[in-house]
Amino acid sequence: MSDDEDIRVDANSIEAEAPRIIPALDDVNTPFWTGGSNGELLISHCDRCDRWVHPPAAECTVCGAPLVPRAVRGTGTLFAFTVNWHQYHADVPPPYVIAIVELDEQPDLRLPTNIVRCDFEKLQCGLPVRVVFERHDHVFVPLFEPLSTEDTEDSSR
Fold this sequence. Notes:
Strands 1, 5, 6, 7, 8 and 9 form a 6-stranded mixed β-sheet that branches. The protein has 1 helix and 9 strands, in the order E-H-E-E-E-E-E-E-E-E. It starts with 12 loop residues before the first strand and ends in an 11-residue tail after the last strand.
């Protein structure tokens, strides 16, 4: 990504619809979980290998260099998904979409997430998506929505 490109993602945040298990924050994962406060999806990057690494880690698994959090564009494609129809938690009503999104920065850079603000019956692998953040106090959970909602709009989720 060139220096003149806008690396900030849409600071669009959404209201939490259900409780989440919030991770314990540490020196390595805090940038990932709190970057949404500035509208940024921060992913660990190895400057030596020029590789992105997720989940957050302290060192590159390829060369051992320290990783640093860097902002990504926050766009990608829906790599895989499933629609959950079973209510496993009383406060989390189905259906909801569990997904893996592949970020645009690197072919194997994938995040487990949820897809929101869409008609899940119209989802398909390869669909362009963008990040939105669900705020839980000081933690901003990265979720994704279709980049274009023309074919996947659903106002209920």
